[in-house]
Amino acid sequence: WTCPRNFGKAFQYYKSLADQWGNATAQHRLGVIYSFGFGPVEQDQGKSLLYYTFAAAGGDQQAQMTLSYKYLYGIGVPKDCEESVYHARDVADKAMEEFYSGPPGGKTLPRAKYRLSQEFGGAYGVDGHGREGGGEEDTLPEIIEYFRYTAERGDYMGNLVLGQVFYQGTPSIPANYPRARKHLLDTAELIFQRDGRKQKRDEALVEAAAQAAGLLGRMYYRGEGVKKDVEVARRWFLCAADEGNADGLYGLGDMYLTGANGIQDTDKAIRFLSKAASKGHVESLSTLGLMAFEARKDDEAMQWFTHAADKQDTQARYYLGEMYNEGWGAARSCPMAISHFTSVTESLDWSYSPIPKAYNAYRAGAHQTSALLYLISGEMGYEVGQANAAWLLDQGKSSTPSSSYIVLPEKALGLEKREREEFTLALWTRSGNQGSGESRVKAGDGHYWGKGTQVDVVKAAELYETAATHDLNPMAMWNLGWMHEHGIGVPQDLHLAKRYYDQTLSRMPDAHLPVSLSMMGLWVRWAWNWWRGEEVSRPHDFLHRTPSPPKKKYEEEEDGEEGKAEWDIGKQGERLEELGRRRKREEEEANGSQEGGEGGDDTGDGFWERGGGDGTMEETLEEGLVDSMIILLLCGLVAWMVYVRQLRVRGQ
């Protein structure tokens, strides 16, 4: 931070501290240095494991997470789920203690981890659905500016959304409770007056005001941005609960459960919590599960916790880890236990995660420091840390001109080109093994081009196929189409190649031109094989698009799930905004206004949704593909005519 990086001197100081005093932090750092072979130290996984083990025994949580991850996946050690659970559970226990040390409802969760490649739309410059560039860093300020503009003109939806944004915070925008309170008050007081009177207006406004009231109650109950005041919190919760708002119902239920309002009444608590849970309120589900767990009703607790964990509740995941580890309410399952414990350790990581420092270093322009910290987090098992470290080491995605300013020096972190490529491939592979489809494709590229390993097109095809079938990654689909077309790494199969090209276009409509060019090449190859008398499929098979691949589970459930808390800016914001648009359409129809036509009001569509919804995507893609092929053929014809004309002019 304040002096040039010198791994050799760092190693000497860490070793002296570890050998003389048994310092656990120094032992962990020695484990990192031996794991990567930084500076003059030769890479030695045996010594790395030894120092990690000593550090974990000394209570170093980073070392404990590292060992848990390595034993889970068998990295440098035999796979051992029980050993993995042993380390993860200890970290999870301490994390939950810190969580419960906070205000009612638990300590505020750390900010979400930010994937650096999102800033440029993904590791390839486009995200999984084909949108180029412009991640959260580009779009979120525009969203906030839009709603700030509408809020200044008295729009309740703008105030509500800004209140949500500043209450929750984002990976790039810290929470700001005073600003959140101002916007929420502006919304709530449109219905709930300070003297206790209530104004009745349209459905959308009442629902928005109730949601704002629920959040205000939460802020006063927890003392967030204001002095904690249980009575004021109770009044806001009552306002929200009267309109059926789940936050208000949960707040009242928690007060009666803990006696925070001076009255402890378990029956009333269960009644309020059950009403909130019926609306999908995640904390209510988790609290009911905890009550059943403490009453030793294991089957009932398992049901409540499972429902809450499906909605990403950390407390529920912790207790599910305990129940699966002990065999309470379900058959004992080590894989299920480690899955839940790991989720807890990576969510409640205020005191030991290097990711916030890594992100701050990245923003400050200290990209090598950022890469080093992301490497450490990747060793601990953070998938986003692995992906970010790989992305930084991979020349900062130098294929994208806008990202050239973050290309690391040639010998960043003292790594030679070969070492850097090997680490990058290993990181992409580990990230892919934890479910990142984009990382699987990058790992496939490494095997295809021989970066960080020997060229292995068969392995590349396997990785592409996993990313295409499991993650529905369009880049992997196109790669497989090309490999099947040319018979590289897989048997040549023109019909299968066309299927993958069709699926690429279904998942990534913006890839219209490259897919059209690929299809033209496929047609030429088919015609050539036919002319040579080889057995080919019927032309009819090439004229019709292959059905799109099935949606992933999270896409199928995305629209119908009410699982997140009521202040979720995503689904809840969309639902409230849809109510607002519906109200505006009704007003326009009542006034005889014909602006925008049927369903033409597009307020906010640019921020919350994309495209139409008329069910004609399949026909549009098919017609567009034919049009593009015709245009390309005409361009080729014109180019040929120009060429012939030039030959004639030269002849004259």
Please explain how this structure is put together.
The protein is an all-alpha fold and 652 residues long. Among the domains are: 1-59, no CATH class; 138-316, Serine Threonine Protein Phosphatase 5, Tetratricopeptide repeat, CATH 1.25.40.10; 457-544. The protein has 30 helices and no strands. α14 crosses α15 (314-326). The longest helix is centred in the last third of the chain and has 35 residues, at 617-651. It is globular, with a radius of gyration of 29 Å. The termini are far apart. Residues 129-135, 396-404, 553-577 and 593-625 have low confidence and may be disordered.
List keywords for this structure.
Sel1_AlgK; membrane; mainly alpha; TPR-like_helical_dom_sf; 30 helices; 652 residues; single chain; Serine Threonine Protein Phosphatase 5, Tetratricopeptide repeat
What would you say about this model in short?
The protein has helices spanning about 5-20, 25-35, 45-55, 60-75, 80-100, 135-150, 155-170, 175-190, 205-220, 230-240, 245-260, 265-280, 280-295, 300-310, 315-325, 335-345, 355-365, 365-380, 385-395, 415-435, 435-450, 455-470, 475-485, 495-505, 510-530, 540-545, 555, 570-590, 605-610, 615-650.
CATH superfamily label of the domain at 138-316: Tetratricopeptide repeat domain
Order of helices and strands: HHHHHHHHHHHHHHHHHHHHHHHHHHHHHH
User: Helicity level, as a percent range?
Assistant: 55-70%
CATH topology of the domain at 138-316: Serine Threonine Protein Phosphatase 5, Tetratricopeptide repeat
Provide the CATH architecture of the domain at 138-316. Answer: Alpha Horseshoe
Average pLDDT for all residues: 84
Q: Strand share of the residues?
A: under 5%
- The radius of gyration is 29 Å
Question: CA-to-CA gap between the ends?
Answer: 73 Å
Query: Structural class of the helix and strand makeup?
Result: mainly alpha
Secondary structure tally, helices: 30
General form: globular
Identify low-pLDDT runs.
129-135, 396-404, 553-577, 593-625
Strand tally: 0
Family: Belongs to the sel-1 family.
Pfam families: Sel1
Region (Disordered): 540-618
Transmembrane segments: 625-644
